[in-house]
TrEMBL record:
Subcellular location: Peroxisome
Start and end residues of each Acyl-CoA oxidase C-alpha1 domain: 303-466
Keyword set, alphabetical order: FAD, Fatty acid metabolism, Flavoprotein, Lipid metabolism, Oxidoreductase, Peroxisome
Record protein name field: Acyl-coenzyme A oxidase
Predominant localisation class: other
Reactions the enzyme catalyzes: a 2,3-saturated acyl-CoA + O2 = a (2E)-enoyl-CoA + H2O2; tetracosanoyl-CoA + O2 = (2E)-tetracosenoyl-CoA + H2O2; hexadecanoyl-CoA + O2 = (2E)-hexadecenoyl-CoA + H2O2; hexadecanedioyl-CoA + O2 = (2E)-hexadecenedioyl-CoA + H2O2
Gene3D superfamilies: Butyryl-CoA Dehydrogenase, subunit A, domain 2, Butyryl-CoA Dehydrogenase, subunit A, domain 3
Annotated source species: Equus przewalskii
Sequence ranges assigned to domain Acyl-CoA oxidase C-terminal in this UniProt record: 512-661
Pathway: Lipid metabolism; peroxisomal fatty acid beta-oxidation
One of the Pfam families matching this protein, by short name: ACOX
Lineage of producing organism: Eukaryota, Metazoa, Chordata, Craniata, Vertebrata
Cofactor: FAD
Amino acid sequence: MASSSEGSGDALLPDFPRGPLQAYRARASFSWKELALFLEGEDMLRLKKTIFSALEDDPLFARPGGGDLPMEKYRELNFLRCRRVFEHDLLRVEDMLQSPLKVWALVNCLGMYDWSLAAKFFLNVLVFGSAIYNSGSERHFKYIPKIFSMEIFGCFALTELSHGTNTKAIRTTAHYDPTTEEFIIHSPDFEAAKFWVGNMGKTATHAVVFAQLHTPGGGCHGLHAFVVQIRDPKTLLPMPGVMVGDIGKKLGQNGLDNGFAMFHQVRIPRQDLLNRAGDVTPEGTYVTPFKDDRQRFRMSLASLSSSRVSIVGMSVVNLKLAVSIAIRFSATRRQFGPTDKEEIPVLEYQMQQWRLLPYLAAAYALDHFSKSLFLDMVELQQGRLGKDASAGQAELGREIHALASASKPLASWTAQRGIQECREACGGHGYLAMNRLGHLRDDNDPNCTYEGDNNVLLQQTSNYLLSLLARRAQGGAHCKSRLKTVDFLEAYPDILGQRFEVPSLEDCLDSSVPLAAYEWLVCYLLRESDQKLNQEKRSGSNDFEARNNCQVYYCRSLALAFLELTVVRRFHEHTHQPSVPPPLRAVLRRLSALYGLWSLSQHTALLYRGGYFSGEQAGKMIETAILDLCSQLKDDAVALVDVIAPPDFVLDSPIGRADGEETLDIAAAF
């Protein structure tokens, strides 16, 4: 548990300036500094303060006045800022390896300032760099120091113009020529052009390029990754045979240069094949440590799961920023009141609480989940680097793949809906560009589609769950996993027989209630999805058609409910652990209960249809509990925002200022 000493808190977390928000801060039931120290720890808070201070004190990061910059100017400035982040040396390579959560914190702090900057840094260091480190071998490690010295600048080139989510259909080829010991990278036509690749538009000098590997007489060995130089690092001119350019303006993140590339018979050394999943001898023989092609394919694309986990964190950051702005505004904006002469803050209205406070609870729950999943991913990658080929390691990979595939949809959609709700809850001021909610909405939007379309990704999770049920039915295999996310399925038949039995409203105000309901809901949807799939097959559909016809109302709902259950369970366990300081227990448990009940309430129809709920009292009790928890958390809302909001310079929203003086700040802008 993190230290909660007053001295440490005051040094790292100075008091906020007095202003209109002081009244709510005075009514809080807990110390926001103690909660920040418990959740983050002194080391992490110190790192965040260092990052934020470096940005605020450096003139290069000064916020431009007078509206948006022209796109070309914005991209040039973003590249200079990215280079300055390296110069500030905010996190050394050793720190990244020893404390992976600090890497997570650095990217998210940069994202709080500007996602174009965070994405540029992230794609170069953590996507391009990690792909080399995790998918390559010692012969490729020469590239790593060049990334940090900015001798080279990288990108990750998987998606093509005609294929994104369907990675197996990627059409770029890599034919091996044993006479020169080279691979020939080639784009057969424009539809095979690499597309949407971040950093490729203007600045990337090297790319991890995914292509179908061919050897003489050996046919095609499937998708593999290659390091390909696409520009001269000194001139940024394209290399021979490479056509590369920018795809143009997007809905958001326009400081990031997304680009395209086509390759015409581009030759690269044999050694630039990233060879952890498979290699080619100088003579042209393909070798791989994997006997199962599916396992080798999963290894080739392992970096996608880590990227999806990172997108979960990005989405949570966007939600944090939006609720910080909206709740601070709601605590100072006064409208109407019990008399004509007395107006009250809009946060006092039940409607405003119901609109915003569940998203505040979601920000806390998803933040904890995203960090825990990130650490799970680190454990998996360490096992792969240690060449752990055990069955347990393979099962861990499948479990994390299922979690990552559903967590990106849940987090990005929750942030999408939450940002829009925050925008509307701030009225006309929320529509002002200067208050940033519109930018947050646009910057979050691609989280729903890149690294896999959300609806398609959910099929990976439902397939995983259905396979567990099939194994259980065929051989009585136990439903147990390394991360214990599916262990409850051991009691699958018994859980299906359970019903909602909560005697009083007070008993309903704990996250154990939605936790039990979610276990039943997942078991019910698993049974329904399995029955629907078998029914489709019996009616003559092949496996492809049957699965396609089971997504809407069945498998999609199953995958989302399973992930919501996992988030609720992890946050419940976190908030109910004995190490939580006594002064923080009540507020954290209210957040946990509110998130669980609010999420569960979106499945009310299913709970009634399946028989878990019966009679009107069950549904009414859930609704009453949600409103009761919102009322209990109302006076703590500003302090809870103080824990997660960055400094004013980074938040960059007049209506979200820490002192609550938004009227003065808006007036000063005109």
